[in-house]
Amino acid sequence: MSDRAGVGIIGAGVISTQYLRTLALAPDVDVRFVADLDVERARARAAEFDVPASGSPAALLADDDVRIVVNLTVPRAHVDVALAALAAGRHVWNEKPLALDRASGRAVLDAARAAGLRVATAPDTVLGPGFQRALRLVRSGAIGTPLSALAQLQNPGPESWHPDPAFLYGDGAGPLFDLGPYYLTALVHLLGPVDRVQAVATRAREERVIGSGPLAGQRFPVTVATQVSALYTFTGGTSAQALFSFDSPLRRQRLEITGTEASVVVGDPNKFDSPPEVHHADGSVLRTAPIRTKVGRGAGVVELARAIRAGEPERACGEVAYHVLDVMIATIEAAESGGPVAVESTATAPAPLPEGWDPLA
Fold first, then answer.
1. Pairing verdict, β 219-221 and 207-209
2. Within a domain: residue 319?
3. How many C-beta atoms lie closer than 10 Å to residue 240's C-beta?
4. Fewest C-beta atoms under 10 Å: which of 8, 40, 77, 346?
5. Claim to verify: residue 204 and residue 114 sit in the same structural domain
6. Could you give the strand order of the β-sheet that contains 239-245, starting from the edge strand earlier in sequence?
7. Span 299-321, pLDDT tens digits
8. Are residues 89 and 190 in the same domain?
């Protein structure tokens, strides 16, 4: 019997193509099924990547060849799909965020634990060679003792390029919930769990206009904050200033960690191949080698499959994802209250991957 893990994908939208490009090349997994509420869209995506079966989510969960369900649905459906997959005896890879509220996120993890199953969650960019190189630098003492961090995510919003962006301005999205997990997950890996948060949140416009595709020109409502400024304090005593914005014509994607001896520019935590740079007080800069990789979204599914087979913990684990969810909710609560909010959950920062780890090898 092959030891390749049978994988099924629920959600055949835009992001599924990125996952399928990686998973089609990975020797540890075998993509067996693509499912969607729109079964014709599922059929087309399966045909595009030579996946042998397609159909409804219920049909996928009835397929005994599927051992890991990759949940690529919209945020409001993440919990229901994950719980259904766990009830059917499947391990789950969840797109971010894990859930939209604390109780639902905890329910997913509790259901997995009770069933003896795994829940791992995006982002898996923290498993990419760029971030892992930065993580090893920090853990090795290359910047001394970490003191603080700066996270900047600024752009004018996804409506200019996304063909159907309204859900990115509703519950479970906005810049904090949509792209914040990349930065916050990276910070937890680098600095450990968050203890407290203070924040300010604003919304520039009540409506936005779709800029491309068949729905171009259509207006849609904005119901969440489109700019969030936050100060995070970590249990180890470090701090991070963060700005998450869909209101900025100026585009920035940056993460920096400052230590007692140097600073490291991690780069864009939404990418797999950003090479870090180490900056010293004397002006010298250590520029690490360029990274050329085919690794993309789906690397975490491979790492999950390998961890299950080896009986080891997966690094993109549900506990980190729940902690990041808790931090994001606490950020909104702090913005609404005008005062600091304690983060009740915690998580253990995963160890770096072995140097040279490759999900495609």
1. antiparallel
2. no
3. 24
4. 40
5. no
6. 285-287, 277-280, 262-265, 252-259, 146-154, 239-245, 227-234, 194-202, 341-342
7. 999 999 999 999 999 999 999 99
8. no
